[in-house]
Amino acid sequence: MKRDTNLKNDLVVKTLLGEPTERTPVWMMRQAGRDLPEYIKLREKYSFFERCQNPELACEITLQPVDIVGVDAAILFSDILVVPQAMGLEVQLIEKQGPVLPEPIKTQDDLKRVRVPDVNDTLHYVFDAIKLIKQELNGRVPLIGFAGAPWTLLCYMVQGRGSKTFDEAKAFCYQQPDLAHQLLQMTTNTTIAYLKGQVAAGADVVQIFDSWGGLLSKKDFEEFSLQYIRQIAAALKDEVPTIIFAKGAWSSLPEMAATGAHGLGIDWCIEPQVARQIAGPMVTLQGNFDPAKLLSPIPVIKKEVTEMLRAFGKGRHIANLGHGILPNVPVDHARAFVDTVKEFAH
Ligand code: CP3
């Protein structure tokens, strides 16, 4: 296992490895480039993918929540959709609408446009950003790299845009399972090379985001998502600590724990004690504050965060939200979340 001995704050890494720490670590999913006024300013000047592709900008945005909110880990500023882009698909990010892929994958012919790229050619800008971020962080906190799970990427590659149900993506899997599995395996191979490249560039931890895992039944989650996540976790687990976040897929927590991943993200719809019981004692749990609760008055945030910390108990817990931070959360509310965790003693 690779470990940066220069880390001054290694609470997240230690917690993932099951080592004792003086307190519970805390960071927030989607903390980079969402709510902070310092980010909004950059957004006026550069397009989304310009921000991702320019290592200096990506570095600046990654560091903002560390400097301003005081989280215990940085997460690389990028997006899960840079992988479909590198595989040959056009991805646009449209203001107020989200991601759009104008030519989604629907047929065998469409699949001919997709390739497993050399990540050193197509995604080198991410590796350059990671090197710069590690240098600028100078060991202050660990850097989390990430990728989307193949299933969640398929959702966008087939549906062509965001959706509450991803019904077209699901229909594609159920009507043309062979094509779906070809696409999922190509995405898996790309993702393994991509995450290994992130680790080689300096990422201390990697997280796999399966935001739409909860749209599938347990059986379909195994077929269309988990078997691919398992390959990714197996390829990475001896390199750095790995976290799987499959939103809504809590019924598969035992199978996810069995992948060898060090951490499992959970959302707010499952109680910490129940998640612990299902996942077993040997894995770190990450979560699970309802992101919308950060819009409550600060005293309510403090009270509810304290309740959450008690429910998880001491050790093997990384405090986080149950999904990404909402863009309209006031900075002092995000800070109240982080400070409450830092001040709490079990
Ligand atoms: O966590 C971080 O702060 C690091 C950066 C990060 C982004 N996207 C930046 C981003 C991460 C980890 C992601 C992951 C991501 N992207 C997921 C998985 C996590 C989740 O929230 O479910 C998904 C499904 C996407 C796809 C995506 N990218 C969507 C749906 C959108 C638009 C709406 C939204 O959620 O913001 C994006 C754009 C995007 N990715 C933005 C940012 C900061 C907003 C762009 C802007 O500033 O206008």
Describe the structure.
There is one protein chain. The chain has 16 helices and nine strands. The protein has a seven-stranded parallel β-sheet. The two termini are 29 Å apart. The protein has one domain (11-343): Alpha-Beta Barrel (TIM Barrel), CATH 3.20.20.210. It is globular. By secondary structure, it is α/β, with parallel strands linked by helices. Coproporphyrinogen III is lined by residues 29-34, 43, 48, 75, 77-81, 93, 98-99, 146, 162, 209, 211, 323-324.
Helix content: 40-55%
Molecules bound to protein? coproporphyrinogen III
Return the CATH topology.
TIM Barrel
**Biggest sheet architecture:** 7 strands, parallel
Structural class: alpha/beta
Specify the number of helices: 16
Instruction: Enumerate the spans where pLDDT stays under 50 for 5 or more consecutive residues.
Output: none
Shape: globular
Q: Which strand order does the major sheet show?
A: 1-4-5-6-7-8-9
Beta-strand residue fraction: 5-15%
**What is the β-strand count?**
9
C-alpha Rg, in Å?
19 Å
Write the layout of secondary structure elements.
Blueprint: H1 11-16, H2 37-45, H3 48-53, H4 55-68, E1 74-75, H5 82-86, E2 92-94, E3 98-100, H6 108-111, H7 119-122, H8 124-137, E4 143-148, H9 150-159, H10 167-175, H11 177-201, E5 205-210, H12 218-236, E6 242-246, H13 253-257, E7 263-265, H14 272-279, E8 284-289, H15 298-312, E9 317-321, H16 331-343
Parallel strand pairs: 1-4, 4-5, 5-6, 6-7, 7-8, 8-9
Antiparallel strand pairs: 2-3
Bound molecules: coproporphyrinogen III.
